[in-house]
Structure formats: structure tokens, C-alpha cells
Amino acid sequence: MTDENELKAEIERLKFKNEQLHLYNDRMTDSNFELRREIQTLKKQLTEVTDDNKKISLQITELTNRLRDANF
Predict the structure, then answer these.
(1) pLDDT at 53
(2) Cα torsion at 18, 20, 23, 27 (round to 10°)?
(3) Alpha-carbon dihedral 12, 18, 20, 23, rounded to 10 degrees
(4) Alpha carbon distance 26, 32 (integer Å)
(5) What is the pTM (predicted TM-score) of this model?
(6) Which secondary structure element, helix H or strand E, spans residue 28, and what is its range?
(7) Residue 71: left (phi > 0), alpha (psi -120 to 50), or beta?
(8) How confident is the model over 35-45, as pLDDT tens digits?
């Protein structure tokens, strides 16, 4: 009878642990989703900044060439 009680107790512990792991997995899945969304936002911002930097670089090059052509 003691072995049966020990087995029942172990099953209950394992069920509880399983439930905890499912809750932890749910939290990590939510966190993963939020992080992926943040990464997408940051990638978009990086692309915008990179594009802006290219435009500014071209503008500086054009202005430099104009100044050179004007013998300034």
C-alpha cells in the first residue's frame, strides 16, 4: 500500500510540475512573440535610418561637387 501511495504522490507532483511547465511555456511563447514584434520594428527603423543616411551622403556629395565646380 505504501508503494501505491508513493506512486500516487509522485504522479501528483509530476502533474503539478507539468502544469508549471505549460504555464512557463505559455509565458515564453508570449515573450517570444513580443520580442519578434520588437525586432521587426527595429529592423524597419534600421532600414529607414540607413536609407536616410544614404540620401544625406548623396546630398553632401552633390553639395561638395557644386562647391568645387564653383571654385569656392
Answers:
(1) 98
(2) -120
(3) -140
(4) 10
(5) 0.66
(6) helix 2-69
(7) left
(8) 999 999 999 99
